[in-house]
Amino acid sequence: MFTPDDRDRVRERVLELARADERIVAGALTGSTSRDAMDRWSDVDVAFAVADGADADTIIHEWTALLDRELGVTHHWDLRRGALLYRVFLFQSGLELDVGLIPQFEFGARGPSFRLVFG
């Protein structure tokens, strides 16, 4: 079972990965973390703006391979809505990481569960 420290490490790693990727121009916390409403069972929810001309499928494929090597992804699947690519990762610890990639011109708050962290 994952701990809050495990969750924090995964969140910080994916934010670090995004900040270092020139194809990502902005990032936000979404879900309960963005509202400071996490509980013991909260997952990690993040969203990233993809630069014009960059391909979200390529980015998520590369990130999946990296996260699997570093953290051991047990399973993942994608959800799509329009231009939004949303990949759900499950780790052996039971932690879930939800990563949204969206073109930069569509990136922004759609409700109260959005906190910009860079870009």
Describe the overall structure.
- It is a single chain.
- By secondary structure, the chain is α+β, with helices and mostly antiparallel strands.
- The chain has one domain (4-36, 43-107): Beta Polymerase, domain 2.
- 28% of the residues lie in helices and 37% in strands.
- The chain contains two helices and six strands, in the order αββαββββ.
- The protein has helices at 4-20, 56-71, and strands at residues 24-30, 44-50, 73-81, 84-91, 96-103, 114-118.
- The chain has a six-stranded mixed beta sheet, with helices on one face.
- The longest helix has 17 residues, at 4-20.
SSE blueprint and pairings:
Blueprint: H1 4-20, E1 24-30, E2 44-50, H2 56-71, E3 73-81, E4 84-91, E5 96-103, E6 114-118
Parallel strand pairs: 2-5
Antiparallel strand pairs: 1-2, 1-6, 3-4, 4-5
Q: In what order do the strands lie side by side in the largest sheet?
A: 3-4-5-2-1-6
> What does the main sheet amount to?
6 strands, mixed
Count of distinct strands: 6
Q: Output the radius of gyration.
A: 13 Å
CATH-defined fold name? Beta Polymerase, domain 2
CATH class: Alpha Beta
Let me know the CATH homologous superfamily: Beta Polymerase, domain 2
**Mean of residue pLDDT?**
96
Query: What is the domain total for the residues?
Result: 1
Which band does the percent of strand residues land in? 35-45%
Helical percentage: 25-40%
Q: Name the poorly predicted regions.
A: none
CATH architecture: 2-Layer Sandwich
Shape from CA axes?
globular
In DSSP terms, counting alpha (H) and pi (I) runs of 4 or more, how many helices?
A: 2
| First-last Cα distance | 33 Å
SS-derived structural category: alpha+beta
Order of helices and strands: HEEHEEEE
